[in-house]
Amino acid sequence: MDSLITAGALSLAAGDPLGALNLVALRDDAPALALRGIAMAQLGDLDRAKALLARAARAFGPREAVARARCVVAEAEIALVSRDLGRPQQTLDAARTVLAEHGDRVNAAYAGYLALRRLLLLGRLDEAEARRAAFDPAPLPPAARAAYELVVAGIEIRRLRTAPARAALANAARAAAQAGIPPLSAEVEAVARVLTTPAARLIADGNERLLLLEEVEALLASPSLVVDATRNAVRAGGAIVSLDRRPVLFALARVLAESWPGDASRTDLLRRAFRARQADDSHRARLRVEIGRTRAALRGLAGIHATPNGFRLMPDGDREVVVLAQPIEDDHAAVLALLGDGEAWASSALALALGISQRSVQRALERLAETGKAQPFGRGRARRWVAASVPGFPTGLLLPSPLASR
C-alpha cells in the first residue's frame, strides 16, 4: 500500500472524507476507488459510493481476496444506511470469514457489528442477541466501538432493559470521545435522549399520563394487570396472553380495562370493537359470543362479569388494571416509528422490518403522505420515504419486541 493510500485511510478513520478525497480523487486504481467510495459514503452520496466500491471490487485481482472482502463490508454498510435490507446476510458472513482467515481482525469484527446492526433494524432481536453473545468487539477501533455500543443499547432498549442500555450508552459516549469525531458524539447523545423521551402512555382510572422507558419497565414487572396496546397483549405477574392476531378480543379487553373499576356499556363495546353505529340483535349476539371468547382467553388473569349496563373486568387477585398505549396513537404507528429514525426508507425495507406485505406498507405510506406525516422522493424502485416531524412520537428503537422472545 503506497503512502497516499495510507494517508487517505487514516483521514477516513478520523472522519475527514474531504482530506481523503484530496489525496486520491484523481486515481482510478482499485485501492483508490475503494477509498473514494468510502469517502463518498461518509459525505452522504450513497449512489456514487456504491458505484465506486463495485468498480473497486471488480478491479482487485483474483489473489486480492481480502481487498474484495473489505469492499463487500463497505457496500454492506452503505446498504444499511440506505435501508437496503434485502441483501443476503450470507454475503457479509462470507466476507467476514475471509477477513478473519487472513488475520484482518479489525474488519472482520466490523463485519460482525454490521450483521448485528442489520438484525436490530429488522427487529430480529433473538438472532441479534445470539450473535452478540458470540461476538468479540475488542478489535474494533474507538469509532466502530461506539457504533457497536449503540447497537447494544438499541437491543436493550427494545427489550425494555434500561440499566444495561444506560451502560451501553455510557460506553458509546466514552468511545466516541476517544475517537474525537463530533458527529458520532452527537449521534450517541441523540440515542441517549430516547431514555428521557416518553415511551408510552398509561391509562388508569380515567386518567392518562406519559411514561418514560424505565417506568414502562417497572410497570411490566409489577403485579398489575396490564392491557398492553403496544403489543396487543394482556399481561400480569409474568404471564402473557397475546391477542395480536385476535384484534376484536383485544379491543374488547382494552375497553373493559379503560372502564375499570366500573363496567363498560354494551354500546361502547359495540362501537369500539365492531365499529357499530347502531346496535341491533345481530350485533348484541355477536358481542355475547366475542365476550365469551375474551373471557376464555383471559382465564387465569381476569374474569368478565355481566352487569345491567354491560360488562366488568374482574382481575384475579388484588390487582390494579391499567392500559399501556403509544404516546401518540396512529393507524400506521409502526411504519411512522421506523421512519422516525431520520433515514430514507424504501417500502420493501419497511416491509422486511415489520414482517408485513409490501403492499400493506405502501398503503400505509400513502395514508401518512395524505396527512402530511410522511413524504416520498424519487421514482420507481428508487423511491424513498422520510417522516415529517411528529413531536412526541416514538422512534424505531421504541418499537416493541416480539412477545415470544421475551
Write the layout of secondary structure elements.
Blueprint: H1 3-13, H2 17-24, H3 30-43, H4 46-59, H5 65-81, H6 89-101, H7 105-121, H8 125-133, H9 142-158, H10 162-179, H11 182-192, E1 200-204, E2 207-211, H12 213-221, E3 225-228, E4 233-236, E5 239-242, H13 247-259, E6 264-265, H14 266-274, H15 281-297, E7 302-306, E8 310-315, E9 321-325, H16 333-339, H17 347-354, H18 358-370, E10 374-377, E11 384-387
Parallel strand pairs: 3-9
Antiparallel strand pairs: 1-2, 1-9, 3-4, 4-5, 6-8, 7-8, 10-11
Key terms:
406 residues, 18 helices
Structure description:
- The structure is a single chain.
- The chain has 406 residues and is α+β, with helices and mostly antiparallel strands.
- The protein is 55% helix and 12% strand.
- A hairpin with a 6-residue loop joins strand 10 and strand 11 (384-387).
- The model has no long low-confidence stretch (mean pLDDT 87).
